[in-house]
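Duplicate of #3305? Posting structure anyway:
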């Protein structure tokens, strides 16, 4: 039986996507060739790229609004630098909500002045700062929508007149947002899209071309736009799996449909975290992530029993990140409600055993 996979990323993907992807490795589109042994310029692969790009824009509600979708390499980590390379002339504003925001700030600092508008570092990033102001003379504002490690998520994005850049690596396609409020969105594929190896970049074209520095070809979004995301050999397999996952999401009813399922899973798990005296949540309640639920035991002496229980129940990937400790239940789009229920059952079983 398949494990209940709560891994933080790479993570669970839809079973039907896995099946189609594995078939394409053997015989892609009935060509009697594998997807990974044919030219990226072949008609069938170009079609995969085009479908993946247009599905991304369609699901985000950004078609016909001046945006381009790209599938690049280097992970979200390269986007920390690339965003700054393309947009930072003098000064940029960053909200620091955790490890990934801090890394984005570190890269951007190489290219200009960075104003940290607020940080929750004082409380080990267990909340999302609010009530900060964004300097209107900054070139852009950068934030991280979901903090994978700490289990916090921005619910209300600030209003600003400057371009808004968002790292949505761990919650893209999981909830309804007005995506047209963002000018640049990036996300590594390995949570809600596919295997590691490609990064989705959605960029509003009119924010580009405004910095004076020369931009190396591979780091210039315009290069990739001009070449339809095929400037160099793209990671075809990762993009194909992303395309299949986006198709799966569309068939399911898109973001509104998955959001309901995600809310159901999060509600199951957080209700138990709050009810069960053996557990306490890590993140501030109002900022809790619907993707990554972080929690700790109230009494560490139950650790051995709890770890044995969840492993016996077929749960995988529940250990918290080393900077938070405890547990992290990552509930990405492809995790079933049934898996969330199995976790809740195990938490209740611990209570019975400990009682
Ligand atoms: N941002 C966030 C929010 C992440 O969760 C991660 C990876 N877990 C990254 C950035 C870094 O992504 P990558 O490993 O694709 O560079």
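Output from current build:
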């Amino acid at each position: 039986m398949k494990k209940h996979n709560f891994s933080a990323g790479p993570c669970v993907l839809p079973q039907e996507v896995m099946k189609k992807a594995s078939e394409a490795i053997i015989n892609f589109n009935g060509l009697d060739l594998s997807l990974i042994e044919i030219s990226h310029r072949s008609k069938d692969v170009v079609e995969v790229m085009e479908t993946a790009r247009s599905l991304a824009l369609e699901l985000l509600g950004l078609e016909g609004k001046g945006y381009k979708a790209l599938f690049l390499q280097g992970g979200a980590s390269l986007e920390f630098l690339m965003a700054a390379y393309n947009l930072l002339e003098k000064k940029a504003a960053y909200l620091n909500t955790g490890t990934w925001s801090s890394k984005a700030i570190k890269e951007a600092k190489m290219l200009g002045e960075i104003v940290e508008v607020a940080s929750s570092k004082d409380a080990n990033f267990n909340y999302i700062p609010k009530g900060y102001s964004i300097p209107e003379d900054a070139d852009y504002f950068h934030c991280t929508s979901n903090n994978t490690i700490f289990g916090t998520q921005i619910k209300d994005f600030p209003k600003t007149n400057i371009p808004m850049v968002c790292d949505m690596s761990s919650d893209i396609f999981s909830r309804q947002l007005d995506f047209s409020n963002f000018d640049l969105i990036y996300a590594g594929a390995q949570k809600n899209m596919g295997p590691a190896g490609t990064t989705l970049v959605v960029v509003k074209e009119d924010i580009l071309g405004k910095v004076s520095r020369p931009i190396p070809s591979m780091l210039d979004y315009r290069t990739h736009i001009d070449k339809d995301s095929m400037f160099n050999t793209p990671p075809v397999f990762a993009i194909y799996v992303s395309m299949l996952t986006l198709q799966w999401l569309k068939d399911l009813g898109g973001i509104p449909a998955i959001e309901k399922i995600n809310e159901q899973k999060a509600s199951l798990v957080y209700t138990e975290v709050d009810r069960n005296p053996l557990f306490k949540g890590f993140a501030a309640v109002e900022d809790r992530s619907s993707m990554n639920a972080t929690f700790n035991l109230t009494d560490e002496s139950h650790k051995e029993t709890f770890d044995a229980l969840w492993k016996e129940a077929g749960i995988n990937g529940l250990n918290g990140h080393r900077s938070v400790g405890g547990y992290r239940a990552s509930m990405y789009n492809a995790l079933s409600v049934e898996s969330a229920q199995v976790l809740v059952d195990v938490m209740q079983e611990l209570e019975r055993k400990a009682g």
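Confirmed duplicate; merging threads. The mean pLDDT is 98. The first helix runs from residue 15 to 26.
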